[in-house]
Amino acid sequence: MPEVRQPSPASSPLQAAPSRGGGRLPHGFHRAPHSHPHGQLVYAAAGALATTTERGTWVAPFNRVTWTPPGFDHSHRFYGSTDVRILAVPVELCGELAEHPSVFAVSPLLREVLLALTDRREFRPGACERLLAVAIDELAETPEQSLHLPEPRDDRLRAVTDLLHADPGRSATLAELGRTAGASERTLSRLFHTELGMSFHRWRTILRIHHALAHLTNGLSVTETAAECGWSNPSSFIDAFTEVVGQTPGRYQADLRGTTN
């Protein structure tokens, strides 16, 4: 994801609300790797966030929520002025959700429940537990919509992915990258499929979409984002973004503006 200078607010929702809460974080705020004895849902009601574990990076724009089960080391980075909502899930309820870090679509009902759980004090006994049960029910019925970018363990493959992380817009072919990394195109192609479960082209596309989400969230135009992330023209970027994210980049920005009004 794009590198930014680390802001240093005196406190943040990630530090001040271990069970549930919310607040604004500045563009580029980064939470160092850590883990929790409970599960954790992190929702960007406005903005976007990336959650990284040893298994890779998951990106969640404002219409998705990240889920991290207990015990997983993970870090967060936030893009745009992010209205972040943090919700701990007790261990006894974690079995209802995925056993691995995931991203889920946020339905209108789930959004309102997450906002209520992180905005309001509990005026009636048991209200939070009842709302949390609704959130779990919604998530359990929602298929994963994971903008997941897996990371390799093989040193040859990691050399290639490191080059692309450093410059997502790089137009080099796999054969050209392989010469730099000291591995053949055939070997690298096989490793992309066996280690990462996808082709080189698909992996690079998702990497670029991750960066595109960050740029769009931070206010770059669709045309500027397409050029910055390596697409030769805006129309091919729009097609790729729509296929991966489920909406056009223009609609994503329009919806994002709606969440901040």
TrEMBL record:
<protein>
    <recommendedName>
        <fullName>HTH-type transcriptional regulator RipA</fullName>
    </recommendedName>
</protein>
<dbReference type="InterPro" id="IPR011051">
    <property type="entry name" value="RmlC_Cupin_sf"/>
</dbReference>
<keyword id="KW-0804">Transcription</keyword>
<feature type="domain" description="HTH araC/xylS-type">
    <location>
        <begin position="158"/>
        <end position="255"/>
    </location>
</feature>
<dbReference type="Pfam" id="PF12833">
    <property type="entry name" value="HTH_18"/>
</dbReference>
<feature type="region of interest" description="Disordered">
    <location>
        <begin position="1"/>
        <end position="36"/>
    </location>
</feature>
<dbReference type="InterPro" id="IPR009057">
    <property type="entry name" value="Homeodomain-like_sf"/>
</dbReference>
<keyword id="KW-0678">Repressor</keyword>
<feature type="compositionally biased region" description="Basic residues">
    <location>
        <begin position="27"/>
        <end position="36"/>
    </location>
</feature>
<dbReference type="InterPro" id="IPR014710">
    <property type="entry name" value="RmlC-like_jellyroll"/>
</dbReference>
<dbReference type="GO" id="GO:0043565">
    <property type="term" value="F:sequence-specific DNA binding"/>
</dbReference>
<dbReference type="InterPro" id="IPR018060">
    <property type="entry name" value="HTH_AraC"/>
</dbReference>
<keyword id="KW-0238">DNA-binding</keyword>
<feature type="compositionally biased region" description="Low complexity">
    <location>
        <begin position="1"/>
        <end position="19"/>
    </location>
</feature>
<dbReference type="GO" id="GO:0003700">
    <property type="term" value="F:DNA-binding transcription factor activity"/>
</dbReference>
<keyword id="KW-0805">Transcription regulation</keyword>
